[in-house]
């Protein structure tokens, strides 16, 4: 191994913030406040390296935090890839690379992305996955706002608004319902606006998601709307194993919230919690240390849980509900994740994939958590940019360390690396951390008491452990996807074509229930419902469209026969 390519294991200490050993165990309990503890500590680099390797040559913006964590836990890092033809144990990529098959060494290697996950987490795909589950398990998937996909669902959206209008008139209520319109591929709040009538849509033909606006967020004394970014980790697909990070982030608006009206609906600083939007507002509060963050615009989840508790909210229940949302959302996405994996690695054993996912969750006034979005590539940066043009004056742009981000993301990445190599338990079952020099020992006197106590992992399993027993029945679509795969040419596509459907109908003896003409007509309609495109029918139906095809479709403009699962002869 050439030395310039290999970043050797560094046994020096680095001063960095870590909440690892000072936050209490989460397990089934809500995060508790960390606001009354001291945070800055010497963060030691492991003196005895472990025999594991990690390739960060494609980690891009994730590289600083991954590199730091790898050194901390004694992995050998290859920042420019190996040149000795040997495979690394872990490959860390910033996105899913199309040549993943060639890059990732062997089937025993791990890579931090599932093929297809980026697409599957986008707003419209996520909505399709959750809607399929809502049709089968309506009460268990009520945590996601009612959503329509434009232009395909425009008529349904209009019909819903008319129905609501009628209902309000009957009740004598003048409270109008509001909707939030978001571009499918949008991020960081771009292109988002609020409406209370379909006629206000800026472009009915654009691919957009329209969603019921949740107008009753839980507010604290400052009256600023906020939401949480909670991190989940899919450790493996088979067997399915999901973890949650006990620390996350809360992002606050910069202007006071009031429910939308025709005079305030366009004030995005009070309706959208995005960091990228609010950081440009004069009222944005950057925190330079962890004591300040309790009043900052970006706070620790544990801090906000403590603040919520003191305002009377039962955070134990909230945390339980949030973890269930994560499990249920992953279960809804699972069939298509499996499908994409099989498509990508249809002819050779693929690597073991894992992924850190960001779940954006807001809390309603009544304490109920609502899922807003899933992010397949949550930011792992631990600093932020300051500067730019302020009041007409140019202020040089410079990077500033973000202590809140460090406290959340360093333990998250570190534990994820340990988790996927099955080292998490071993790491946390050893008491404390070996110190490397006496001077450091002196400088960390205050921390020693904490270090000697048994530390708790930042990640804890939520599936199958803990929530498997109450969500196992939701794995139902797993079985459907195996049926689907029998009739899909996985080498070429993840969609079922008309030929595949014909074969399925024949094989399952369904030809006495539907004719081929009916099948074609229905395929066209369902394809439009899912893609918003009349011309893509020959590309076949995606898995969720296939489910709708076979489980019935109760829309006004599609007269369909309803085929029941029991109609299948096998
Ligand atoms: P983006 O990917 O552009 O950030 P999001 O779906 O996360 O889009 O929405 C941006 C912000 O808008 C959220 O962080 C949240 O503050 C607000 N928001 C999104 N959806 C809703 C909703 N249904 N009800 C209330 N607020 C919402």
UniProtKB/TrEMBL annotation:
PROSITE patterns: TTL. Residues 30-40 have a biased composition (Polar residues). InterPro entries: TTL/TTLL_fam. GO terms for cellular component: ciliary basal body. Signal peptide: none annotated. GO terms for biological process: microtubule cytoskeleton organization; reproductive behavior. GO terms for molecular function: ATP binding; tubulin binding; tubulin-glutamic acid ligase activity. Residues 17-40, 432-451 are annotated as: Disordered. Keywords: ATP-binding, Ligase, Nucleotide-binding. Belongs to the tubulin--tyrosine ligase family. PANTHER family: TUBULIN POLYGLUTAMYLASE, TUBULIN POLYGLUTAMYLASE TTLL11. This is Uncharacterized protein.
């Amino acid at each position: 191994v050439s030395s310039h390519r290999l970043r050797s294991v560094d046994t020096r200490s680095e001063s960095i913030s870590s909440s690892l050993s000072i936050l209490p165990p989460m397990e089934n309990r809500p995060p508790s406040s960390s606001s009354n503890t001291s945070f800055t500590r010497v963060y030691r680099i492991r003196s005895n390296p472990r025999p594991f390797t990690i390739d960060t040559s494609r980690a891009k913006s994730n590289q600083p935090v991954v590199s730091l964590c790898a050194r901390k836990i004694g992995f050998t890092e290859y920042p420019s890839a190996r040149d000795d033809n040997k495979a690394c144990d872990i490959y860390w990529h910033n996105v899913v690379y199309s040549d993943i098959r060639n890059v990732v060494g062997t089937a025993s290697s791990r890579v931090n992305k599932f093929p297809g996950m980026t697409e599957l987490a986008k707003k419209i795909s996520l909505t399709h996955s959750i809607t399929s589950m809502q049709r089968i398990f309506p009460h268990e998937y009520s945590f996601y706002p009612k959503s329509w996909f434009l232009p395909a669902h425009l008529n349904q959206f209009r019909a819903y608004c008319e129905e609501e209008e009628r209902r309000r008139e009957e009740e004598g209520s003048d409270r109008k319902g509001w909707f939030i319109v978001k571009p499918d591929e949008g991020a960081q709040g771009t292109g988002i606006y609020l409406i209370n009538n379909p006629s206000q849509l800026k472009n009915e033909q654009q691919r957009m998601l329209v969603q019921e606006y949740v107008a009753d967020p839980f507010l604290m004394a400052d009256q600023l709307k906020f939401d949480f970014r909670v991190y989940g980790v899919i450790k493996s697909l088979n067997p399915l194993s999901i973890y949650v990070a006990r620390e996350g982030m809360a992002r606050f608006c910069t202007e006071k919230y009031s429910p939308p009206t025709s005079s305030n609906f366009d004030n995005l600083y009070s309706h959208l919690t995005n960091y990228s939007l609010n950081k440009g507002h004069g009222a944005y509060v950057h925190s330079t240390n962890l004591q300040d963050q309790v009043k900052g615009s970006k706070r620790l989840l544990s801090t906000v849980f403590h603040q919520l508790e003191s305002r009377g909210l039962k955070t134990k229940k909230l945390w339980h509900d949030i973890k269930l949302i994560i499990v249920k959302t992953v279960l809804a996405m699972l069939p298509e994740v499996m499908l994409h994996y099989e498509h990508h690695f249809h002819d050779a054993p693929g690597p073991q994939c894992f992924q850190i996912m960001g779940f954006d969750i807001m809390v309603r006034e009544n304490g109920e958590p609502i899922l807003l979005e899933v992010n397949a590539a949550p930011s792992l940066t631990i600093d932020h940019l300051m500067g730019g043009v302020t009041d007409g004056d140019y202020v040089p742009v410079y990077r500033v360390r973000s202590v809140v981000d460090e406290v959340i993301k360093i333990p998250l990445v570190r534990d994820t690396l340990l988790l996927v190599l099955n080292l998490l338990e071993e790491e946390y079952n050893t008491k404390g951390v070996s110190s490397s020099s006496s001077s450091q020992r002196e400088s960390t006197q205050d921390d020693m008491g904490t270090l000697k106590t048994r530390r708790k992992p930042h990640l804890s399993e939520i599936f199958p452990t803990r929530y498997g027993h109450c969500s196992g029945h939701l794995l139902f679509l797993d079985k459907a996807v195996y049926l689907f795969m029998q009739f899909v040419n996985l080498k070429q596509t993840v969609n079922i074509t008309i030929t595949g459907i014909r074969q399925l109908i024949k094989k399952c003896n369904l030809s006495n229930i539907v004719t081929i003409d009916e099948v074609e007509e229905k395929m066209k309609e369902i394809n439009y419902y899912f893609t918003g495109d009349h011309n893509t029918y020959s590309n076949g139906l995606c898995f969720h469209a296939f489910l709708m095809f076979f489980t019935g479709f109760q829309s006004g403009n599609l007269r369909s026969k309803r085929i029941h699962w029991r109609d299948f002869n096998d």
